[in-house]
């Protein structure tokens, strides 16, 4: 009986949310387009879309040397820090440790998602 009540309650909330979205979505859509109309290409032809796609691709391609330079600066900084470990402040070490823990946590989350949200050894 409690499950039926909860299902009805959930359906009611979903219906309310659907009504709210259907009421406000067109207004939000129009407002969003109005605010960003300077980004819209008129007329929206296939040729213009192809041109924009190529511009995006080659702009990203042209940004690779700058990204490589920034990466090499980061590597040089890490080499400098590694050489001067005795000058390392506790704050920097704590930040590096937290970053490592965060990377490990994202790796674990990715593994769990990759297995279909199952934990090894637990079957429900």
If you compute it from the alpha carbons, what radius of gyration comes out, rounded to the nearest whole angstrom?
26 Å
Structural class: mainly alpha
Please tally the helical runs, counting DSSP H or I stretches of 4 or more residues: 4
Distance between the termini: 24 Å
Give a short synopsis of this structure.
This is Mitochondrial ATP synthase subunit G protein. It is built from four helices and no strands.
Attribute tags:
124 residues, 0% strand, mainly alpha, ATP synthesis
Give a structural overview.
This protein is an all-alpha fold. Among the domains are: 40-87; 89-124. The chain is built from four helices and no strands. The chain is flat, with a radius of gyration of 26 Å. The chain starts with a helix and ends in a 10-residue tail after the last helix.
Task: Present the secondary structure layout.
Elements: H1 2-35, H2 46-62, H3 64-83, H4 90-114
Organism: Hibiscus sabdariffa (roselle)
Subcellular location: Mitochondrion membrane
Protein name: Mitochondrial ATP synthase subunit G protein
């Amino acid at each position: 009986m409690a499950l039926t009540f909860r299902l009805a309650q959930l359906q009611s909330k979903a219906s309310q949310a659907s009504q709210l979205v259907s009421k406000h979505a067109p207004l939000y859509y129009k407002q969003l387009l109005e605010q960003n109309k300077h980004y819209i290409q008129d007329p929206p032809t296939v040729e213009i879309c192809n041109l924009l796609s190529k511009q995006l691709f080659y702009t990203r391609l042209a940004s690779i040397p700058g990204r490589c330079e920034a990466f090499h600066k980061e590597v040089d900084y890490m080499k400098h820090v590694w050489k001067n470990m005795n000058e390392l402040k506790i704050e920097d070490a704590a930040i590096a440790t937290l970053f490592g823990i965060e990377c490990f946590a994202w790796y674990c989350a990715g593994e769990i998602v990759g297995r279909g949200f199952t934990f090894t050894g637990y079957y429900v």
